[in-house]
Write a structure and sequence with these properties.
single chain; alpha+beta; six-stranded mixed sheet; six-stranded antiparallel barrel; about 20% helix; globular; disordered C terminus
Length: about 375
């Protein structure tokens, strides 16, 4: 059995007696530091600090870099200017998803792709397989040289202001500063995240881990900053309906079915999967990702079957009791005929079919705050 990989922050986890690590895609990562709900609430109300160094980073450089990324991804990379980032997807020819990722434009002919940890090897091979012969394109996997911290929450800017001279107030969402200084360390500082809150992601060399971790916690603790693990990361992204590869997205689920069609530019020149997605859109989507709220008592979990009219119509992709809203909620991929808001369905939980209703998702947006119960 292969040993689990560890991030450069692993030895710092032990400062938190209640921290607990799990195997996450071959990585030994903290599911919690002080408690999932406590960490979730901290991110919604103040801020949380996430070690997400298991994510993958690829550099794509050369005169042909832009056209190559344009061919490989669903969004329109030509819309990016230096210092801009975009969410996008890579698809198979049949429209299924290879991975979802972020593209950062570092400069002309210089890009960084940030991919999911479980897909690093697969994604890199997929990109290598499609490198056009004879063109000026270099593809480099720098995942093992790069750490990544996410500082997320409504007080993230306030906290970060104390340890950087970067013009944070001027940094718009999905923009970044390639050479910023945080806690005395040169980093790539990005206004991005995966929680439904404002926040920043910090890319830096591995040997700066302790300086960044301790410096950010020291600056943030007076403001309520707490380290946060995978458990809170999942509940936060779920409430905001941010997809997770392997659940809301996969080789068998297209971006259109998953509800992220905004990031699929079908009107741009050819990209892998475009024809299949055009056909799916023209024919009408067979399935849609919907929000569910339980009427009967029970919590929907990933892969629980969903029924209507006596037949299985889909399954839950993610579900939990929402820490913010205190309601039993789920995301489910169901037959499109049952996707209208207000449709009654049944979720099979422990052998019993329990009533639920299709509701609007995202369940939470930061502009609305916490809904009254």
């Amino acid at each position: 059995m292969d040993a689990l990989k560890r991030t450069p922050f692993y030895n710092l986890y032990s400062a938190f007696p209640e921290s607990r690590c799990i195997d996450f895609g071959g990585w030994e990562l903290p599911v919690q530091f002080t408690g999932i709900v406590k960490e979730h609430e901290a991110v919604r109300q103040s801020a949380g600090l996430f070690d997400v160094s298991h994510m993958g980073e690829f550099l794509v450089t050369g005169a042909g870099a832009e056209s190559f990324i344009q061919k490989m991804t669903t969004n329109d990379v030509t819309r990016l200017t230096d210092g801009g980032a975009q969410y996008t997807l890579m698809c198979y020819p049949d429209g299924g998803v290879v991975d979802d990722l972020l593209v950062y434009r570092l400069g002309e002919g210089r890009y960084m792709l940030v991919v999911n940890a479980s897909n690093i090897d697969k994604d890199f091979e997929w990109l290598q397989e499609h490198l056009p012969a004879g063109e000026d394109i270099s593809l480099t996997n720098v995942s093992d040289e790069t750490l990544l911290l996410a500082l997320q929450g409504p007080l993230a800017e306030t906290i970060l202001t104390g340890v950087t001279d970067a013009p944070l107030a001027e940094l718009k969402p999905f923009h970044f500063i390639e050479h910023a200084t945080v806690c005395g360390v040169e980093v790539l500082l990005s206004r991005t995240g995966y929680t439904g809150e404002d926040g920043f992601e910090i890319y830096a060399p591995l040997n700066t881990a302790e300086t960044l971790w301790n410096g950010l916690l020291a600056a943030g603790t007076p403001h309520g900053l707490t380290p946060a693990g995978l458990g809170a990361r999942d509940t936060l992204r779920f409430e905001a309906k941010l997809p997770l590869y392997g659940q809301e997205l996969s080789a068998d689920i297209t971006p259109l079915e998953a509800g992220v069609q905004f990031f699929v530019k079908l009107d741009k020149e050819d990209f892998i999967g475009r024809e299949a997605l055009l056909q799916q859109k023209a024919a009408g989507l067979p399935r849609r990702l919907v929000g569910l709220e339980m009427i009967d008592r029970g919590i929907p979990r990933s892969h629980y079957p969903v029924y209507a009219d006596g037949a299985k119509i889909g399954e839950v992709t993610t579900g939990t009791q929402s820490p913010t809203l205190k309601r039993n909620l789920g995301l489910a991929l169901v037959d499109a005929a049952y996707s209208e808001i207000g449709t009654e369905v049944y979720v099979e939980i422990r052998g019993k079919q329990l009533k639920a209703v299709v509701v609007k998702a995202p369940f939470y947006k930061k502009s609305q705050g916490v809904k009254p119960q």
